[in-house]
Write a structure and sequence with these properties.
heterodimer; A: 9 helices; elongated; B: five-stranded antiparallel sheet; 40 helices; globular
Chain lengths: 191, 851
C-alpha cells in the first residue's frame, strides 16, 4: 500500500467516473479524519479538516503528477493534512491560549508520520474487508467476523453458527482471498 | 493418499498437530502440489489475518468494519443480503417479520459511533423522506434506533437503475418521455412539500418490473420549509458532490449552496431527459475535474440533434430550456417542466419558448436602465416576474419601461406577485426569502427594494398563519423604511398596520394597539380624513382594541369600525372587498356584544358581509373563508347546526378554490385551531373532520387495495353532523388506517392527533382523549426516536388524563420518560418543559400522598 493506485487516481481525475469518486472518498475520508483525531483535534474539527483536505484534493488532483515517484500521492496528501491540522491547532491556541495543546504536541507519542503511515495501512485494509464482505455469503462473513472482531475460537464459531471446522476455515480462506484480491486491485493494477 | 481437509492443514500450519501427524502431513505435502498451495495460502493468510485484526482493533472507537445489527432491528426484520455498502450506510434486503413484506433497510454505517453530523444527516434524511408519500418516491415504512444502530426500512424496489432500464427495454421515445414525466411529477411533489432532492441521477431512480420509476435517496436533499430542524452550517460534503458531476447544476458546481433551489433539480431532470432521449450525455466529460467543471458551467450541451436528427422542435426546446446555465433561464419550476412534457405527450404545443421571457426582459432592461434606479427592478423581475412588464415588453415599448419610476414599478411588481394570488405557495415563499437575502447582499443601497420584499414575505407568512416569521420580516420592513424615510412615512404606516395585526394574533395586545395608533397617526397627518387608507388604519386599530379583551374599549372599537365603513362605502361603493371586510368586523364585534344587539341583527350583519364577498369577482378574497368560519361558529353557538353545516360546506368549497387542495389541508387545520381558540368546538371538530377526510383521500390513488376503506371513512367524516345522529366521528379508525398506510413512520400523525385531542379535551371526552393519545404514542415509539417534542407532549397530556381519572400510578412512568427527554434535549426552560415538570410534580405528590 505504499503506492496509490494510478488507476484510481486517474479515474478520479477523469471526473465523469462516479464510482471512482465513491471509492476514493470511502478510503481517504476516514484516513484524513482519523489522522486529524490522532493529532488532538475533537471530532467536529477533525471533520472540518477532513472536508478542507478533500476540497483541496478535488481542486488539485488534476494537476497532480502521480507518475513521478512511488508513494508520491501518499506523502503529498500527508503534507496537505498535516498543514491543515497545524492551522486548526493554531486557531485553537489563539482562541484558548492553551499551552497544554503545545505540550501535548511534544508528547512522546508516535510521530505524525508514523500515525499517518499506520492510518493509511489500516484504512486500506478495512476498506478491502468491507468490499470483500459484499462478495462472500453473509454466513461466511459472519464466521470470519466472529474470529476476527470477537476473538472467538474455531470451535466457538462452529457452535455459534452450526458449522464444522472445515467450513469455518474455508470461510476464512474465502474472505481473506477476497481481501487479498481487493488489495491487489487497489495496490498495483497499473494497467 | 487423498488430499488433506483444510482444517487439518490449518492445524499443521499453526503447529497444533501431534508430532506424528505433523510428519504425515509433511510427507503428503511433498507429493501433493494442491495441498502445498493451500498451505502456502494458509501461511500468508495468517499474516493478513493478523494485520486485519490489528487494523480493526486499533480504531475500535471509530469503526468495526460493519455495524453489528442488534436488538429491535433484528427482532423486526430478517436480514437477507447486503446490497450496497456506501459512504454513509449499508443497505440490506430483509423481510419484515410481522408483515412478511420485503424491505430494504439502510443502517447508518457506524451506528452509535457515527459523528454527530453523520447522525444529524441521517436523521434528516429520514425526516425528509417520511414526509413524502408518492407512488413514484420510495416509501419509508419505519425507522428507529437501537443501542448501536440508526436505521430505516423502506420499500424494496426490485428493478433496474433508470439508465439500465432504458438501455435494456428498448423503449420508444414516447415511453421514455412518459417515464421521465413520472419522475418529474415525483420531483414536483417533493418540491411542493418543500424538499429539493439535489442529487437526481440514474442511480437514484429505480424502475420496477412494471416500469414504474421510484425516486430514492434523499440523503443530500435540502428542505426549505420553515419547520425544519436547524440546519448544520456546512452540510454538504465534498465527497457527495464529487460523484455526480454530470448531473449537478452549474450553481451546485460553483459551490454556492445559497444558489441551489428547485431549479437545480430542473437542471438534473434536464440531464436525465437528454440522456434518456438521445442516448448520450449532454457533455463529454473525459478531461480532468477542472476542465469538467468548466465544461458544465460554460459550454453549451451538444446539440441533441447531432445524436437524434429527427428530434422535434418542441422537445428540443424542452431539453435546452432545462439545461440552461443560468437558473433564471430554465423552467422556473419542476411543475412548468412537467406541464410541458405533458403537453408534448398530448400532442399540444408547449409553453416554453427557446428562452425565458423574463430573461429577455431583464436583458432589455439592462440596456435601458438608469444606473442604480432600475437594477433592483431588474433583479426583482427575474425573481418574481411581472405581468405589467410582460405586457409592456410585448408592446415593445422599451422606452416607456425605462422611464417608469423605480418605485412605481416595484409596487406593480409586488402586486402581481401578491400572496393572495399565489395562494400561499410555499415554494414561491422560498424564492422570496432568497430574493430578500440576495437583495440585501447584492444591493445594499436599494433599501426600498429590501423593505418591499420583506413586506411581501411578511404578508405571505401572515396569510399562512405563520406569525413568528411574519413578525420578523415586517419588523425588518419597518426598520428599512424608517432608515430612508423617517418614522412618519406612509410606507411605515402600511407596514405597521400589518405588523399590528400580526401582534394581535400573537396576543401582544399592548404593542399591537400602540403600533396601530402610530399607523393611524401617520396616515391622518398626511392624508385627508376621508382617505380609504385612513379608514383601513381605523379598522386595524379597532381590531387591535377589540381583541385586547378590554370591554371598556368596545365603544371606541364600534366607533372606529363605523367610521371606516362609512368612508369605504363613500369611496368604493358596493360590492367591494374593503366594505365586506369592515362589515365582517362589525358582525364579529356585534357577536361579542350580543346582548345589546339581538341575534337577528348579528345574523343580518354576517349575511350582508358574506353577500358582499360572494359578489366579488370569482369570490376572490381569502377573508371570505374567515368570515364563513366565523359565521359558522356563530350559528353553532345558536345551535343552528344545519345552517352551520351549510356554511362550512361553502367554506371548504371556497377555500379549495382559493388555495387548491394542497394548501387546503393545512388551512383547515389552522382554521380549526383558530375556532378552538374561540371555544367553538363543533365548528372546530367539523373542520378537523374535513381535514382528516382530505388526508385519507390523498391515499386513495396510492393504495387502491384500501380504496373502499379509505373512501368510506372519508365519506363518513365529511358527512355533515346534522345528517347523521351525533355519534363520535371515526377519527380513531382514520388515524389507525393512516398509521398502517404510512408504515408507522410519520410524526405528522402524532402532531395531528395531539391537535385533535384539543377538541376532545375541551369537550371533556376523557376516554376518547386517552385513546387518541395512546394511538399517537404507538406511532411515535417506533418512528422518530424518543427525542421528539410531540411525543413529550403526548406523554404529558396522557399523564394529565390519567391523573384526572385517579390513575396517577399509571401516569408516573410516562411523565418520567417525558421529563427525561426534556432534560436530555435540554429544553427545561421551554413552556412544554415546564408543563412536564409541573405534571410530574403533581403526579408524584398524588402517588406519595397515598397511604
Amino acid at each position: 500500500m505504499s503506492t496509490t493506485r494510478p488507476t484510481l487516481l486517474s479515474r478520479v481525475r477523469d471526473s465523469g467516473d462516479a464510482r471512482a469518486w465513491e471509492e476514493f472518498y470511502a478510503i481517504y475520508a476516514p484516513i484524513l479524519f482519523r489522522f486529524s483525531r490522532s493529532q488532538g483535534l475533537p471530532s467536529d474539527e477533525a471533520e472540518e479538516v477532513r472536508d478542507q483536505c478533500l476540497e483541496v484534493l478535488a481542486r488539485k488532483i488534476p494537476s497532480f503528477d502521480y507518475d513521478r515517484q512511488k508513494g508520491a500521492f501518499k506523502s503529498w496528501l500527508f503534507r496537505i493534512a498535516r498543514g491543515k491540522v497545524i492551522d486548526q491547532l493554531r486557531r485553537r491556541r489563539e482562541e484558548r491560549a492553551d499551552t497544554q495543546e503545545l505540550l501535548a504536541l511534544a508528547d512522546p507519542r508516535p510521530t505524525p508520520e508514523e500515525e499517518w503511515e499506520r492510518n493509511w495501512h489500516d484504512e486500506h485494509l478495512k476498506y478491502a474487508l468491507e468490499q470483500a464482505r459484499l462478495e462472500v455469503s453473509e454466513r461466511s462473513y459472519r464466521a470470519f467476523s466472529l474470529l476476527l472482531v470477537h476473538d472467538q475460537t474455531v470451535p466457538q464459531v462452529c457452535e455459534a453458527l452450526e458449522m464444522n471446522p472445515n467450513q469455518v476455515y474455508k470461510s476464512k480462506m474465502r474472505v481473506l482471498d477476497r481481501v487479498r484480491q481487493v488489495l491487489k486491485r487497489l495496490e498495483e493494477n497499473k494497467g | 493418499m487423498s488430499c488433506q481437509p483444510v482444517d487439518r492443514l490449518q492445524e499443521f500450519v499453526s503447529g497444533e498437530l501431534a508430532a506424528k501427524e505433523q510428519g504425515t502431513v509433511k510427507k503428503h505435502l511433498t507429493n501433493c502440489p494442491r495441498c502445498r498451495e493451500t498451505v502456502e495460502t494458509l501461511e500468508s493468510d495468517e499474516n493478513l489475518f493478523d494485520a486485519l485484526k490489528n487494523a480493526v482493533r486499533r480504531s475500535p472507537s471509530l469503526d468495526t468494519p460493519h455495524p453489528p445489527l442488534e436488538g429491535e432491528l433484528l427482532k423486526q426484520f430478517r436480514i437477507e443480503n447486503t446490497i450496497h455498502y456506501g459512504g454513509q450506510g449499508v443497505v440490506y434486503t430483509a423481510t419484515q417479520q410481522d408483515t412478511g413484506r420485503k424491505v430494504a433497510i439502510k443502517v447508518l454505517l457506524r451506528g452509535r459511533r457515527a459523528t454527530a453530523r453523520e447522525r444529524f444527516r441521517f436523521e434528516r434524511e429520514i425526516d425528509i423522506a417520511t414526509r413524502l408519500r408518492h407512488p413514484n418516491i420510495v416509501t419509508i415504512y419505519d425507522s428507529g434506533s437501537t443501542e448501536q444502530n440508526l436505521y430505516y426500512a423502506m420499500e424494496y424496489i426490485e428493478g433496474k437503475r433508470l439508465d439500465e432500464h432504458v438501455q435494456t427495454q428498448g423503449l420508444n421515445l414516447r415511453d421514455k418521455l412518459a417515464l421521465l414525466h413520472k419522475v418529474t411529477c415525483a420531483v414536483v411533489y417533493a418540491h411542493r412539500h418543500g424538499v429539493i432532492h439535489r442529487d437526481l441521477k440514474p442511480g437514484n431512480i429505480l424502475v420496477d418490473k412494471k416500469g414504474e420509476p421510484h425516486v430514492l435517496d434523499f440523503g443530500v436533499a435540502k428542505a426549505f420549509r420553515e419547520d425544519d430542524p436547524p440546519r448544520h452550517p456546512r452540510i454538504t460534503h465534498t465527497g457527495e458532490f464529487m460523484g455526480t458531476l454530470m448531473y449537478a447544476s452549474p450553481e451546485q458546481i460553483s459551490g454556492d449552496p445559497e444558489g441551489v433551489d428547485v431549479r437545480s433539480d430542473v437542471y438534473s431532470l434536464g440531464v436525465l431527459l437528454y440522456e434518456t432521449v438521445t442516448g448520450h450525455p449532454p457533455y463529454n466529460l473525459t478531461g480532468d475535474v477542472a476542465s469538467s467543471l468548466r465544461t458544465i458551467t460554460e459550454t453549451l450541451p451538444a446539440d441533441p440533434r447531432t445524436h437524434l436528427p429527427a428530434l422535434s422542435d418542441d422537445l428540443h426546446t424542452i431539453l435546452m430550456r432545462s439545461l440552461q446555465k443560468e437558473p433564471e433561464r430554465r423552467y422556473a419550476s419542476s411543475e412548468a417542466l412537467a406541464e410541458d412534457l405533458e403537453r408534448h405527450l398530448a400532442g399540444e404545443p408547449i409553453e416554453a419558448t427557446a428562452d425565458s421571457s423574463w430573461y429577455l426582459i431583464r436583458k432589455m432592461l439592462r440596456r435601458h436602465r438608469t444606473p442604480v434606479a432600475l437594477s433592483g427592478v431588474a433583479l426583482l423581475l427575474v425573481l418574481f416576474g411581472s405581468l405589467l412588464l410582460l405586457r409592456l415588453w410585448q408592446e415593445r415599448d422599451a422606452e416607456r419601461v425605462a422611464r417608469l419610476k423605480t418605485h412605481q414599478v416595484f409596487q406593480d411588481l409586488l402586486a402581481s406577485a401578491s400572496p393572495e394570488r399565489m395562494g400561499g405557495n410555499v415554494t414561491l415563499l422560498s424564492v422570496y426569502e432568497q430574493a430578500a437575502e440576495r437583495i440585501e447582499r447584492d444591493l445594499p443601497d436599494e433599501v426600498d427594494a429590501q423593505a418591499a420584499v420583506r413586506y411581501t414575505i411578511g404578508e405571505t407568512y401572515f396569510r399562512l398563519f405563520q406569525m413568528t416569521q411574519a413578525e420578523s420580516h415586517l419588523r425588518q420592513a419597518v426598520a428599512h423604511y424608517e432608515t430612508t424615510h423617517g418614522d412618519s412615512h406612509l410606507e411605515v404606516a402600511r407596514c405597521k398596520n400589518l405588523l399590528g395585526l400580526v401582534l394581535t394574533s400573537r396576543k401582544e395586545h399592548e404593542e399591537a394597539i400602540a403600533t396601530q395608533r402610530e399607523a393611524l397617526r401617520i396616515r391622518s397627518q398626511d392624508l385627508s380624513s376621508d382617505d380609504p387608507l385612513v379608514a383601513e388604519s381605523q379598522r386595524c386599530l379597532g381590531l387591535a382594541l377589540q381583541y385586547s379583551g378590554d370591554p371598556e374599549d368596545l365603544e371606541e372599537v364600534r366607533g372606529l369600525y363605523d367610521q371606516a365603513l362609512a368612508k369605504f362605502l363613500r369611496h368604493h361603493g358596493e360590492p367591494h372587498m374593503e366594505v365586506s371586510r369592515t362589515r365582517h368586523r362589525i358582525a364579529r364585534l356585534a357577536a361579542t356584544m350580543y346582548s345589546e344587539q339581538g341575534a337577528q341583527a348579528v345574523d343580518n350583519l354576517f349575511q350582508k358581509a358574506l353577500q358582499g364577498y360572494r359578489l366579488l369577482p370569482d369570490h376572490q378574497d381569502p377573508r371570505a373563508v374567515e368570515c364563513l368560519s366565523d359565521y359558522a361558529s356563530l350559528l353553532e353557538s345558536q345551535a343552528r347546526i344545519a345552517d352551520a353545516d351549510d356554511i362550512l360546506e361553502e367554506l371548504v368549497a371556497t377555500a379549495e378554490r382559493l388555495y387548491g387542495s394542497q394548501q387546503l389541508d393545512q388551512l383547515l387545520w389552522s382554521l380549526a385551531s383558530l375556532q378552538l381558540g374561540r371555544n367553538h368546538l363543533v365548528a372546530a371538530e367539523q373542520l378537523y373532520r374535513v381535514a382528516v377526510a382530505l388526508r385519507l383521500e390523498e391515499w386513495i390513488d396510492m393504495r387502491p387495495d384500501h380504496q373502499k376503506e379509505l373512501e368510506d371513512l372519508a365519506q363518513s367524516l365529511k358527512r355533515p353532523s346534522s345528517v347523521v345522529p351525533r355519534k363520535a366521528p371515526p377519527f380513531l379508525e382514520a388515524f389507525a388506517l393512516l398509521r398502517e398506510l404510512m408504515g408507522n413512520g410519520s410524526y405528522e400523525i402524532l402532531r395531528d392527533l395531539i391537535q385533535l385531542t384539543e377538541v376532545t379535551r375541551a369537550k371533556g371526552q376523557v376516554d376518547q382523549t386517552e385513546r387518541l393519545l395512546r394511538e399517537g404514542l404507538e406511532i411515535q415509539c417506533r418512528a422518530l426516536g424518543r427525542n421528539c417534542n410531540y411525543r413529550v407532549q403526548a406523554l404529558q397530556l396522557l399523564g394529565e388524563v390519567l391523573m384526572k381519572t385517579g390513575r396517577a400510578n399509571e401516569a408516573l412512568s410516562g411523565l418520567e420518560e417525558a421529563m427525561a427527554t426534556v432534560i436530555r434535549v435540554n429544553r427545561q426552560e421551554s413552556s412544554l418543559g415546564s408543563q412536564v415538570k409541573q405534571s410530574l410534580w403533581a403526579c408524584k405528590k398524588l402517588v406519595e400522598g397515598r397511604p
